[in-house]
Amino acid sequence: MAGFKTLDDLAEVRGKRVLARVDLNVPMADGKVTDATRIERVSPTILELSRRGAKVILLAHFGRPKEGPETKYSLEPIAAATAGVLGKPVAFAGDCIGDKATAAVAAMQDGDILLLENTRFHKGEEKNDPEFTRALAANGDIFVNDAFSAAHRAHASTEGLAHLLPAFAGRTMQAELEALERGLGNPARPVVAIVGGAKVSSKIDLLMNLVKKVDALVIGGGMANTFLAARGTDVGKSLCEHDLAQTARQIMIEAAQAGCAIILPSDAVVAREFKADAANEVVGVDAVPADAMILDVGPRTVETVNQWIDRAATLVWNGPLGAFEISPFDRATVAAARHAAARSKDGKLVSVAGGGDTVAALNHAGVADDFTYVSTAGGAFLEWMEGKALPGVEVLKK
Ligand code: ADP
Ligand code: MG
């Protein structure tokens, strides 16, 4: 990708010690990996480096250890899981610096893969401490960062190493950066954003950034209630941050100034209880009963959203349109997701989505694979949508 060094810029790696920062922060239960998606995502980079004869030394964090090493945060069980996914042996060293690491690296043959213990077992990792960073760098000739999901943190293994060793983006990092570039960096226009989810308060920066970059912003989910209330609509017992009315108005003003259309729901699915299969009805947003809450946008709104998707060349999506975890309030999210997926599959739309619940909602709708790109990076993806520079990405720039 323009502006970043990738594995294509890495001329000769045979025999070189490559420190590869990967995301192995996988969900575990009873000492077993319950979802290997993250391991699968970093496999191409590991296998390519190994195939090209590098000594591949994996650096990763796991969980949030507070006071040094803790057995429950050891990466050792994940070495075996990674070997299973790669179909190749993965050795393990009980420390990421010092004698244990040095000895394990010295024993490597070209093409071997070694996982070093949790980088966060050392305080210097999160402090980006120069001495710790030098100790990590002592075991490598080249640094490859394939952990976009950790790129919003300036840690030793995500940022510091790039100052000490020649640094390159791994294949997953590269794919993520290329997708994000197509989403907001240099997108085909018009660009439409869909933002939903529970609260405005968690997404103020994101909304402020988007109105300056996109041509239309569809607001759904609980946060739409705050916008509706801010323009004088009574949203009954709906989730609503009344104290953010001024912020919502400010976002609408900024949008108007930037020429970004704001699309709020025109109808809603309301219920009296927040639970699956609660009795519900569709009402216009100006007719929400005082004792009811909005749990989804209505069918008329879905039609409008789909029309905006039809007009869009690029779609950026974060946040479900309704309380998608409880049926039938997943309907709007599923319908819009399927529509966007179909347009993408037809080659008419570049669709980029991300966010923990958003990924879950797209999986629930069965369309995650049909979107152009679905980011599983969580916090890093949101910071990117907020327009922030990510330290782990900045250091990879040419
Ligand atoms: P993401 O994790 O993708 O960034 P959020 O965490 O911002 O998304 O939002 C997801 C949450 O928003 C879901 O738990 C969903 O139930 C909730 N939500 C969406 N619409 C509503 C609504 N109308 N009322 C209450 N909660 C809602
Ligand atoms: Mg969430």
TrEMBL record:
EC number: 2.7.2.3
Catalytic activity, reaction form: (2R)-3-phosphoglycerate + ATP = (2R)-3-phospho-glyceroyl phosphate + ADP
Keyword list, A-Z: ATP-binding, Cytoplasm, Glycolysis, Kinase, Nucleotide-binding, Transferase
Gene Ontology cellular-component annotations: cytosol
Single GO term (MF): ADP binding
Primary location recorded for the protein, binned into one broad class: cytoplasm
Metabolic or biological pathway, per its Swiss-Prot or TrEMBL entry: Carbohydrate degradation; glycolysis; pyruvate from D-glyceraldehyde 3-phosphate: step 2/5
UniProt: (2R)-3-phosphoglycerate binding residues: R38, R120, R153
UniProt-listed GO biological process terms: gluconeogenesis; glycolytic process
Binding positions for substrate per the UniProt entry: D23, L24, N25, R38, H61, F62, G63, R64, R120, R153
Residues annotated as binding ATP: K203, E325, G355, G356, D357, T358
Matching SUPFAM superfamilies: Phosphoglycerate kinase (SSF53748)
Keyword Mitochondrion listed: no
Family: Belongs to the phosphoglycerate kinase family.
Subunit structure of this chain's protein: Monomer.
Designated name of the protein: Phosphoglycerate kinase
Gene it is expressed from: pgk
